[in-house]
Amino acid sequence: MMKLLLASNSPRRGELLSQINIEYERISASIDETKQAEESSEQYVQRLALEKAQAGWQKNEQQGLVLGADTIVVCDDIVIEKPTDKNHAHKMMTLLSGNTHRVLTAVALVSNQQQAVKLVSTEVTFKKLTKQEISDYWETGEPQDKAGGYGIQGIAGQFVTHISGSYSAVVGLPLYETAELIKSFKGL
User: Fold this and answer.
1) Active site residue 70
2) What is the bridge-based pairing of β-strands 25-26 and 4-6?
């Protein structure tokens, strides 16, 4: 059985892999995460996931099976990434407030024989948030390292009025698609 390497520092992705009984080891994979001008949101998130997996594979001397993933939030055709500070987070949450947005998560696998990427799109609707709710949420510390400035699995779950698609993809790793992708690779 081929060893699975997770090219991610996200504790949530590791927890999700454990939920589907996948044993893994972490490997760091730093890449430039700048969106290119001509890229669609879908192309962008898929490229990041694949580049993370490829960087992990290169770092591991081109051995094993490396999983990379990335998650972005898109609202009104604007990519909302991690907040840079409190004001940025407030603008992000104000945009999400009372709206439906898309969470795009791509998962990529790379081995010495093949590479593949799967994209999952989930729609999430937020209730209308007050300025106080947004401010209080920032003060919890939860939004500071998360795409879109919120964690659906945490305190922000109370803001969600509707979800259409994969809950685990919003958390950071689509479980069904990840399991199917891993099964499709030879030698695992």
Assistant:
1) yes
2) parallel
Which structural domains are found in the chain, ordered by start? 4-184 (3.90.950.10)
Residues in the chain: 188
pLDDT digits (tens, 9 = 90+) for 76-98: 989 998 899 999 999 999 999 99
Q: Of 70, 76, 77, 85, which is the active-site residue?
A: 70
* Global pTM exceeds 0.85: yes
Q: Please, which residues have CB within 8 angstroms of residue 38's CB and are 6 or more apart in sequence?
A: none
Q: How far, in Å, CA of 94 to CA of 87, rounded?
A: 11
CA distance 15 to 111: 22
Predicted confidence (pLDDT) per residue in 124-142, tens digit: 999 999 999 999 999 999 9
